[in-house]
Amino acid sequence: MHGPIARMIQSQGKEYQLQNASGGGGRDTPSYSDDGTIVGVLESRGMPQTATNSDGTDVETDLEVRAVPDDGTTLRPAGSADGYPTLLQHPTGAEYRLLDMHEEDGGVTVLTVVED
User: What are phi and psi of 28, to 5 degrees?
Assistant: First the structure.
């Protein structure tokens, strides 16, 4: 059951195209392909937080996408053993790389992202 914030995100959010790395492209240049969509709201926290990038370096970002993913949605944060991080493409064409994620009450998932 989704709370009021999750319902607002679903009705007012933007649809992001998700891209996950697939085979090919070699270790340094992963090959990304479309892997569904997610509806979310991009927010700037105003105060940067530190997250760890895929290569183990610390990255500061204040960008978050609040989203309500479907059960079958594959989201891979940076540093995941499952492969390269998920890319989110905003309808304007801007791309964001998923650094970290956590769940909040009411069915909302907060995705910490950095512009790619």
Answer: -85, -20
Instruction: For the chain, list residues with pLDDT below 70.
Output: 1, 23-29
Give one DSSP letter per residue of 7-70, joined into a string.
HHHHHHPEEEEEEEEES-STTTSPEEEEEEEEEEEEEEEEEEEEEE-TTS-EEEEEEEEEE---
- Is the model's pTM score more than 0.85? yes
Residue 15 tokens, joined? 């649809």
pLDDT at 24: 55
Residue 55, C-beta contacts closer than 8 angstroms, at least 6 positions apart: none
Measured between alpha carbons, how far is residue 25 from residues 29, 34, 69, 80, 100 in Å? 5, 15, 28, 18, 24
pLDDT at 26: 53
